[in-house]
Amino acid sequence: MGEALLFPASVEALGASVAALAAGPLWLRDSVLRTLIGFFTLLAPAAMWNLLAGCAGLVSIGQQAYVGLGAYGLLYFADALGLNLFAAVLVAGLVGALVAVPTAALAFRLRGGYFAIGTWSSPRSTGWWSATSPPSSAAARA
User: Fold this and answer.
1) What is the DSSP string of the chain?
2) Is the distance from CB of 102 to CB of 91 less than 8 angstroms?
3) pLDDT, tens digit (0-9, with 9 covering 90-100), for 91-134
4) Own/partner pairs for 57-60, CB < 8 Å, 24+ apart?
5) Is the pLDDT confidence value at 4 over 70?
6) What is the reported pTM?
7) What share of the chain has pLDDT > 90, as a percent?
């Protein structure tokens, strides 16, 4: 019974925290915003790793491809297309999800070491590295 009384209060505290952070650009200094952005940038992969390895027991070493795809997408949408930064974050996340969901449908059929190798090799087999790596031959540089 004691836990039932704590749950609504924790949901309300979480909602108030999210609302305060969402309104952060209105009342926080730029240096604090940069620090928070850096913190949440590191928190997202840490939470992803905890959910996969800690809760589900799956060791994945390929999720960095989706993080990289979102980062490149953010840069492309915000810089090349001139999209608002906050809208570019949402669009880049959706693009990453559109690529991750079909790949996950295949990867979650694997177990143990096969899952680790499959998630590591899936970005490599789709050619994502070639789009982000420097040219490796003299013909490609010419």
Assistant:
1) -HHHHHHHHHHHHHHHHHHHHHTHHHHS-HHHHHHHHHHHHHHHHHHHHIIIIIIS----S-THHHHHHHHHHHHIIIIIS---HHHHHHHHHHHHHHHHHHHHHHHTT--THHHHHHHHHHHHHTTHHHHHSPP-SHHHH-
2) no
3) 998 988 888 888 888 878 887 777 777 777 766 665 555 555 54
4) 58/115, 59/115, 59/116, 60/107, 60/115, 60/116, 60/119, 60/120
5) no
6) 0.52
7) 11
